[in-house]
Design brief:
Largest sheet: 6 strands, antiparallel
Radius of gyration: 50 Å
Number of strands: 29
Strand order of the largest sheet: 15-14-13-18-17-16
Helix content: 25-40%
């Protein structure tokens, strides 16, 4: 191209620049004073070189000055590295980003062949170049630049140079951070996958129709299937038909407000068993509120259900024992305790023959006292080898029989015909031998503290399993205690003597401990606890809750703190009368475990502390308006049982300063709540004890520390010539004792110190007829009217008293005490 042509093309560009709306060929030819063909030639050259644009408007061609930016200028603005190569892989051009990464200038890079370069970037590029016939190609490569490992995404685009030759443009996008994040994501996914696969719980994801989209290894192993085989199938295969409605109801209950549900169902396990599963389902919804997916976490709870069944059986047993215990305690002297025992044993083993016998001293013979059984049993089986008559037919001399009876559990013994050889008349032995081989015989001794007092026998159909064996054994042990009155009385005294003394050295705990001890039942203990906590923690809100284990709800019983702060708090929550509000702890499953821990724990918000029962926006407003500090909770517990809880809300920032003291007081309050329940039981036991003392046939005195009479029974009043036992109260016991006769020093020391050793002595007392009688006194320390007292029982040394002054009701002695 000549210089004249360049000059004319520049003139044309100037005219186009001054006319931004465009010019036609005629306009250019008239301005340049040249013919149209020559003007069209120059415009085509500008159009081909990209310096001008053309637009057809009707039949006319209108030319404009091109508004394009040179590609080299644009590529320099790019953050990606750009390298342009010719067909021989020689560098024709690089942008500024590539020069910065290479650490070289443009003159040293342009013209360099990639295959011969030692620059690490070019070396990596040369090994990643694709074949020339691939147009669109993307790859990733790695190289070390300036001591750091860098990762790039390389894109290849073919280009054509101005002279028509072909080349290649390589665009290198740095993806080091993306690569690192991707590797971390892979590691995280692998760890998460490992956690899911290693979980012992069943983890599944399922579509809205219930078909599984993912199953972890634990669930697949549980079903003896591969995880891939379970995908696409119902996520609970083998669901029991009776529990299909449970599953359907649980699924239909899921919504955006309640995205979590739990249910239990039975499944047909591949082993052939029907097992129980517990599932917790969480629903996920898309932007439009439609259910998109569910995630379930389950576990096999068959053993738990079986354990629960055992617990229920245990509760039934305890109810049964409670009934029998009450019956034993309420039983009058005229009631036949032996008949009651055999009836209860027979009710636990229907179809059996049950008998009870006791050992009569000094002959050491078994005497039948009660019998209950199936009247359809053979005659020989209905009559065990003991008699209810005065004559006993079963001497307890055989070593084998003694060992069987002395066992603390039911023992199956050989037929009676073998055990009683030579010990019973031959006629009875033949009658028993004729039918006993058709039955299994069980024996268990009535043993108390190693002392054999009798036995219980059971005859049951041979080959059948004796039902409720453990329960029968426990009942027999209970019956042994009831029959042995001494053991019953000793147990009663021990129960009355057991009281725990709680001593606290700290002034506050000592005061509160005394308050709790002296507190009457009508006193509001919840209010007392709240007030004392308010003293310990100023500038706080204290809430005391009771717990209903059946409903699993906490009920607010008392509130303490600054009245202004409390009023503002309830007003912000929109509550007018807070007392009596109930809060189900099931809203926060973890809360029951925290409350049962017996320590203060922090609750993150007012919304959580109120178990999500108050709208969250109100709780947030209360926190902001009152500038509330931290909140804490603690349960009133004893041996894992929850009696209630306390909520402590601070109105200032910071922590509870006297945290250990607060926990100690709350543990003390837990014991106080338990004591309130125990006092009810104590009153019942005290009433029973007084009733037993009143009905005892021998004299009984209760002496105070000063030797004065605190109480006595009717027999004691009769002994000393009083009409009513109340007349003896407040009198000195020594008024009725012969001069110079005192209680032994051991009993006096026990009386002064509150000891519990039982001692006996001989006393000469003045009788009602101004005579005297020698009596054996047996003493033991007890608590009478909540004070230490000496329990003193009297009995004569001989069957008759001196001068006939000993009441005949004393002839039974105190052997049963």
């Amino acid at each position: 191209m000549g210089a004249l042509d360049l000059e004319r093309m520049n003139q044309i560009k100037q005219y186009l620049k001054r006319n931004p709306r465009g010019m036609t060929i005629s306009d250019i030819s008239s301005r340049m004073h040249m013919n149209r063909n020559l003007a069209a030639k120059y415009l085509d050259m500008l159009l081909i070189s990209g310096q001008a644009d053309m637009q057809e408007i009707g039949t006319a061609k209108v030319y404009f000055l091109s508004r394009r930016v040179p590609i080299s200028s644009m590529l320099d603005l790019s953050s990606d590295m750009v390298v342009i190569l010719d067909t021989r892989n020689q560098v024709q051009w690089v942008n500024e980003s590539a020069l910065a990464a290479l650490g070289e200038d443009r003159q040293s890079v342009v013209g360099t062949c990639l295959n011969a370069s030692e620059n690490p970037l070019f070396v990596a590029l040369s090994s990643h170049l694709p074949p020339a016939d691939m147009s669109d190609w993307v790859s990733e490569m790695c190289c070390v630049l300036q001591g750091e490992e860098c990762h790039f995404r390389v894109k290849r685009m073919p280009v054509v140079f101005e002279d028509g030759s072909r080349g290649t443009t390589l665009i290198l996008e740095e993806i080091t951070d993306e690569f690192v994040y991707r590797e971390r994501l892979k590691t995280s996914e692998a760890r998460y996958r490992g956690i899911v696969e290693d979980q012992t719980e069943f983890i599944v994801r399922c579509a809205p129709d219930g078909s599984a989209t993912f199953v972890n290894g634990a669930y697949a192993r549980y079903l003896n299937e591969s995880a891939e085989h379970l995908v696409g199938k119902p996520f609970i295969p083998g669901l029991h038909s009776m529990d299909a409605s449970v599953w359907d109801r649980a699924f239909r209950s899921l919504n955006r407000d309640r995205p979590v549900t739990t249910f239990e169902c039975r499944v047909h396990h591949p082993s052939g068993e029907v097992r129980w599963n517990a599932w917790t389902m969480r629903a996920f919804f898309d932007g439009s509120g439609r259910l998109s997916e569910c995630r379930g976490v389950g576990r096999d709870i068959t053993e738990k259900r079986e354990a629960a069944a055992k617990i229920n059986d245990h509760l039934r047993w305890m109810e049964f024992f409670s009934q029998t215990c009450t019956a034993f305690m309420d039983m009058d002297e005229d009631d036949d305790i032996y008949e009651y025992v055999v009836r209860q044993v027979h009710s636990l083993a229907p179809g059996s023959l049950v008998w009870v016998s006791i050992i009569v001293e000094p002959t050491r013979s078994l005497v039948l006292k009660g019998r209950a059984g199936d009247p359809a049993a053979p005659e020989g089986a209905r009559h065990p080898p003991v008699s209810r008559s005065a004559k006993a037919f079963a001497p307890v001399h055989g070593e084998d029989l003694v060992e069987f009876i002395r066992c603390r559990s039911l023992v199956k013994i050989p037929p009676f015909s073998r055990l009683l050889d030579g010990q019973v008349p031959g006629e009875i032995q033949k009658r028993v031998a004729g039918t006993a081989d058709e039955f299994d015989t069980y024996l268990m001794g009535l043993v108390s503290k190693g002392r054999l007092i009798g036995s219980i026998g059971i005859l049951f159909q041979r080959g059948a399993t004796l039902p409720n064996k453990d329960l029968i054994e426990a009942l027999i042990r209970q019956a042994a205690i009831a029959i042995d009155r001494r053991i019953a009385n000793d147990t009663l005294k021990k129960s009355l003597a057991r009281e725990q003394e709680q001593v606290r050295n700290l002034q506050f705990l000592s005061r509160t401990a005394m308050d709790f001890v002296e507190m009457d039942d009508p006193v509001n203990i919840s209010r007392y606890i709240a007030d004392r906590l308010s003293e310990l923690i100023p500038e706080s809100l204290i809430g005391i809750f009771s717990f209903d284990p059946g409903q699993r709800v906490l009920t607010l019983r008392a509130v303490a703190g600054d009245e202004g702060h409390i009023a503002g708090f309830w007003k912000a929550l929109g509550i007018n009368s807070p007392l009596g509000l109930s809060f189900p702890i099931s809203e926060l499953p973890r809360s029951e475990a925290d409350l049962g821990d017996g320590r203060l724990f922090e609750v993150p918000s007012v919304y959580d502390s109120l178990f999500h029962q108050i709208p969250q926006d109100r709780c947030i407003r209360a926190e902001e308006e009152l500038q509330l500090g931290r909140g804490f909770c603690m349960g009133f517990t004893y041996k894992g049982k929850i009696f209630g809880s306390v909520l402590i809300g601070l109105f200032q920032k910071g922590d509870i300063e006297n945290r250990e003291l607060v926990e100690a007081f709350l543990n003390q309050a837990s014991v106080a709540l338990l004591r309130r329940c125990a006092r009810e039981c104590y009153r019942e036991s005290d009433e029973l004890f007084r009733l037993l003392v009143k009905q005892m046939p021998y004299p009984v005195f209760f002496l105070g520390c000063d030797g004065r009479i605190l109480g006595a029974n009717k027999s004691a009043a009769t002994l000393v010539g009083c009409h009513d036992a109340a007349e003896l109260a407040g009198r000195s016991f020594y008024e009725y004792v012969d001069d110079g006769v005192y209680l032994p020093s051991g009993l006096l020391r026990d009386l002064a110190s509150g000891g519990c050793n039982g001692l006996s002595c001989r006393l000469r007392m003045r009788s009602a007829a101004n005579g005297t009688c020698d009596l054996e006194a047996w003493g033991r320390m007890v608590r009478y009217n909540r004070r230490p007292a000496l329990y003193l029982g009297l009995r004569p040394f001989s069957s008759g008293g001196v001068n006939g002054t000993v009441p005949s009701s004393m002839s039974g002695g105190i052997g049963g005490l």
